Amino acid sequence: xxxxxPLPTTLTGRHVRLEPLAMRHLGELFAAxxxxxxxxxxxxxxxxxxxxxxxxxxxxxxxxxxxxxxVPFAVIDRADGKAIGWTTYMDIDAANERLEIGWxxxxxxxxRSAVNTETKLLLLTLAFEELxxxxxxLKTDHLNHRSQAAIERIGAQREGVLRRHRRRPDGTWRDTxxxxxLAEEWxxxxxxxxxxxxxxxxxx
Length: 204
Hints:
Distance between the termini: 35 Å
CATH topology: Aminopeptidase
Number of helices: 6
Number of strands: 8
Helix content: 25-40%
Order of helices and strands: EEHHHEEEHEHEEH
Structural class: alpha+beta
Strand order of the largest sheet: 1-2-3-4-5-6-8-7
Strand content: 25-35%
Largest sheet: 8 strands, mixed
CATH class: Alpha Beta
């Protein structure tokens, strides 16, 4: 029996709420991460220097969602109710019980906090326990060591590297590191994420 594809929904944790991404989040998103080169260096484009530039990226993502290519979420800090980043289900293949969690970013103020840990816990729980996925994929630039370390802390297994995979905005070539987590690996990974949220340390 095939898995079910994800639909726009709201997922609520202790620290963050994930809700369907919309243009109404633009102002808060720009305040959280607009113009920060370190955030956008590995996000497939130069850092948006104006709200309008970030709006163009957001509009493109929403167009992809309208076509059914992805399901994007705004990441909301429950402490103040503001959007602090976004994350996306993408490369969705319900027939083969797999999807990817990708195009994720958060404002720098939320790095090495509970935000990424709980965001991944919410998304992975939905994928494995409600949608019936057998594989969740994550990938990142080989130069983005912070992202690779965060993915490994989830419990995902490094699978390999696609060399010269994508051209960066500056013209250099990116190698892409692929990771995955399988359904049979999820219970142990879930326990680790829950333990970290309970106070055993954060890593972004």
